[in-house]
Fold this sequence. Notes:
- The chain is an alpha+beta fold.
- It has a single domain (8-112), classed as HIT family, subunit A (2-Layer Sandwich), CATH 3.30.428.
- The chain has helices at residues 8-14, 58-65, 68-79, 128-139; strands at 21-24, 28-32, 42-46, 83-87, 103-108.
- A hairpin with a 3-residue loop joins strand 1 (21-24) and strand 2 (28-32).
- The longest helix is centred in the middle third of the chain and has 12 residues, at 68-79.
- The radius of gyration is 17 Å and the shape is globular.
- The active site is at residue 102.
Amino acid sequence: MSQEKDCIFCKIVNGDIPSSKVYEDEAVYAFLDISQVTKGHTLIVPKKHTQNIYETDEETAGELFKRVPKIATALKKALNPVGINLLNNNEEAAGQSVFHLHLHLIPRYDSTDGFNPNWETHADNYTPEKLTEIAENVSKNIESN
C-alpha cells in the first residue's frame, strides 16, 4: 500500500498513532473519530493513500465503498441509532482537514444529537432547462474506460 510519510491517517493505519479500531482488512481501516460528533462517529479510510475522491482510482473507491454497509450495519446493531449520515469532504473549501480520503459514518439519534446536516436549497433558481444544461455538461465530462 502506498503511504505518505506525514499523513496522520497513514500513521494510524500503520499503527504509529493509536486509534479506536472498529474494522480492518487488507484494503480499509475504520476507527472512531476522536471528535465524536455523535456517539459512534466512525471514519473509514483506504489503506492506500489517496488525497481525495478526485485522485482515487476505481478499484480503491470500490474497496472503500463496499465496506460501508457492513460497518454501518454494525453501528446500527451496536448503538441503535435511528439513522446515519454518510459524509465525505473533498478539498479545504468543502471542509476536508485531513488530506487522505475518508468517509464519515455519523449515527443519528434525534434532533438534539449535535449534528445538523441541513443546508439551504435553491430550487427556485434552476429551471428544468437549466438543470438539463448542467446535466449535459457534466455527462460529457464523464470519462469512459
